[in-house]
Amino acid sequence: MVTSVAKERTVRSEPDYIARAEALAEGFAARAGEHDRIASFPFENFRELSEAGLLSLTVPAAYGGAGAGARYAARVLGIVGKACASTALVLSMHYINHLVMARSQIWPVRLSRKLAQETVEGLALINALRVEPELGSPARGGLPATIARRTETGWRLSGHKIYSTGSPILKWYLVWARTDEAEPRVGQFLVPAGLPGTRIVETWDHHGLRASGSHDVIFDDVVIPLDAEVDVRKPADWRAPDPAQATVHTIFVAAIYDGIARAARDWLVTFLKTRVPANLGAPLASLPRAQEILGGIEARLAVNARLIDSFASDFDDGLPLSAIESNIVKLTVTNNAVAAVEDALSLTSNHGLSRKNPLERHYRDVLCGRVHTPQDDTTKIIAGRSALGV
User: Is 225:185 a contact under the CB 8 Å cutoff?
Assistant: First the structure.
């Protein structure tokens, strides 16, 4: 078995992608506030990520990518998430799909190779479009209203997807739909962006992650080839989650929200060192209360770092990981991140909530972790049922 350390060395033998991410992060952070303010999509960030070879980070080396595993990708996402959470969210979905493709026995080789090569050669991002107005997230069960009708020449796809993260820049949609067969099957269909009948409706006007371009995408009798069927099964066959997808999803989502909390922590440290109230005559950093709260933030972030790194390393090493444990990691890291930013706000009074400072944006962004699938109630119920054997 190849260990995560050996895999890390393999990636490190290539250009240093961590250093590349850190170099880009400064520009991402400088632009993040304006993109958030007007909810504009950061196209320039993805152009720079592509030029730096970071879009193909999780593409297999055999196809020209870096062949990075979950641990290395999570580190990059943490760096990008600290600078611009919206950019990191779009990037994480792209990374997840390529990691799953690389490990999948189901993905048609022709399609996975095509998408990999396009990502290596240019701007070719992919994301799964799953959520619908009536259904909500399919993670909670139910059949999608999006329908794929089989004809002699191809599938004809019709439906309405919401929260389609990265929609302004995606080249490929992995659409969750059901067939019109007598006994419907459910699964994923690969759809190129921009086909006739496809329309993006700019509905995204959110409290947090405002630059993520998570708009609605509508499909009106869109024609796709018969071999665009990626993984379509009986509904009952989807009850057990894909362990690989569940694991990398939770690790990458956790890394993003941890990155947001670290950005808040860094801003807080500067604020405490430089803010000198007239009645105190010394920086706020001199107060034991400030030191204690900041120490609590450090403790939460230290736990997060260990959880993300060790769990990602276990995944890369091929150790058996349960979806329950994956979800608990996401729950713990995101709640630690939210609490860290809330603690930062408790020390900054009106300054922390002022739009001229980034802390209020970090707070809005980190709160999205509570609604990001898997949600806390689902994680706790499943874990509780497992413990009870019911």
Answer: no
pLDDT of residue 11: 52
Token pair belonging to 288: 């034991």
3-state secondary structure 210-243: CCCCCEEEEEEEEEECHHHEEEEECHHHHCCCCH
Type of residue numbered 190:
L
Q: Looking at per-residue confidence, does 50 or 138 come out higher?
A: 50
For residues 220-239, give the mean pLDDT. Answer: 92
Number of Cβ within 10 Å of residue 129's Cβ equals: 27
Whether this prediction's pTM lies above 0.85 is answered by yes
Q: In this structure, what are the phi and psi dihedrals at residue 387, rounded to the nearest 5 degrees?
A: -65, -35
CA neighbor of 31 nearest in space, from 94, 93, 87: 87
Asked whether residue 4 carries a pLDDT value surpassing 90, the answer given is no
Q: Which domains does the chain have, with CATH numbers?
A: 4-123 (1.10.540.10), 129-235 (2.40.110.10), 243-388 (1.20.140.10)
pLDDT given at position 244: 83
Q: Please enumerate in sequence order all residues whose Cβ is within 8 A of that of 249, keeping only pairs 6 or more positions apart, or say none.
A: 96, 326, 373
Question: How far is it between the farthest Cα atoms of the chain?
Answer: 80
pLDDT band at 18 (very low <50, low <70, confident <90, very high): very high
pLDDT at 14: 46
Phi, psi of 115 (to 5 degrees): -65, -35
